[in-house]
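The following record pairs a protein chain with its ligand, NG6.
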Amino acid sequence: MTKTNFLNLSFFVLLALTFIACNSGGNTKETTITENKPALPNIIFIYLDDLGYGDVGSYGSTELKTPNIDRLANGGVRFTNGYASSATCSPSRYALLTGTYPWRNKDAKILPGTAPLLIDTAQMTIPRMLQAQGYHTGVVGKWHMGLGSGNVDWNQRIAPGPNEVGFDYSYIMAATQDRVPTVYIEDGHVAGLDPNDPIQVSYKENFPGEPTGKDNPELLKMKWHHGHNNSIVNGIPRIGFMKGGEAAKWVDEDMADTFLIRAQKYIVAHKEAPFFLYYALQQPHVPRTPHPRFAGKTGMGPRGDAIAEADWCIGEFINTLEKEGLLENTLIVLSSDNGPVLNDGYHDDAEEKIGKHTPWGPLRGGKYSLFEAGTRVPFIAYWKGKIEPSVSDAMISQIDLFASLSKLTGSSESNQDSKEMLDVLMGKSTEGRDELILEATTRTAFRKGDWAMIPPYKGPAVNKQVNIELGNAEEYQLYNLQDDINQQNNLAVTKPDKLQEMKTAFEKIRGIADDDVEALELK
Ligand code: NG6
Ligand code: CA
């Protein structure tokens, strides 16, 4: 080494030492600051797809066992009046993440796989709010809130998407398990895509020469009942047409494991930071494709088996949190995006093998319905050592998580719809919401206190394909849920004052002028 080189080296060593010294000085200072601040807990949403109020053991299911969900329910706050914001997926998820009512966004309907992103990239979301509070944020599982801004090229980076509305990491399916494209997308890129076999997706027409569920029943391992007769992937007919991307296509039976592993990896990788994980399981939405480990386990066909599989995944996931020593510092909220459905478009024995099980529990209706089973869902808050086990009858909606987590993490974010209910969530108070707008496929109804009011709607009383009562009727419906949880006794005529009070309060939030309500709802 020459003398000059040696001097240069000494200079750099000195510089490096000075840097380290200054930096550790800075660190000491920082440590003092953070020590005074309460540590931010990790936050996890475990979200199921179409899981009903009565599908869970701790919510009264005797036929179907869910020991791992019950572990959370019995060790945390189990809400009996917890609501999803809509009786279908996309609007419900939109509301969950933004803390705003879905009916404020006219595009918040069940979306095709090619729909543009439903959340405005300038909009505040839970993950974005938490990012600003120092969180690392991730989503693993079902997205179904649209991607891109129209005309997505699935072979390029797909944006805007979850990473543009507040998630640092995303590993998702675009829409639903029954909709194309049937591939996983990681941080905007189709996972495992072979560039020589590009993906094309259309919801308008088939690609020449490609088989469909409608024309090629001989290729199907699962038969369609209604809808679901477009492209065939893995022997299952889907909604929408897709060509190419063979290597990237998911294996349906492995989906639960795939999402579980990604969710576990995420928490292990980010255990040092406060993190927020939105773990959105795909079960028991159609097509129900439990891994062979679970097939036949419940005697209820694939729907029951898929719930058993989801419950197992939740158990494995909680075990990972425990093993990593994270349970005491993690708030877990478990819920479902909408109520239950048996036949949602495939012949999968869900109706035939239901036996004595009641996925809707004591409630009327189901998915797509304005009756209670459409939106009243399992809703559990668990935080080991911080939340005392209790059953809470307080009314709480998933839109309230936004304001409640804002409070928990010291953020100043708020909005007109989301009610701050941290104490309710933590089981310290039972003063829940007084009123809530309920939604099902763009129709709205109202809950206030013990009362539920459904305005008149045209349309069938029952959706015969899914065999669910939708809540449509020519006259107003008014039910006292305290006495009549199954909504059998319409008191609209005998309680005109109550009905008027409900209408006025509903219209005030819903923004419909008094005279217009009937005319508008009957359209
Ligand atoms: C419906 C589908 C249903 C399901 C639902 C979305 C038909 C006939 N039915 O349009 O199978 O995919 O959309 O469910 O296509 S959700 O839980 O994602 O909202
Ligand atoms: Ca759903």
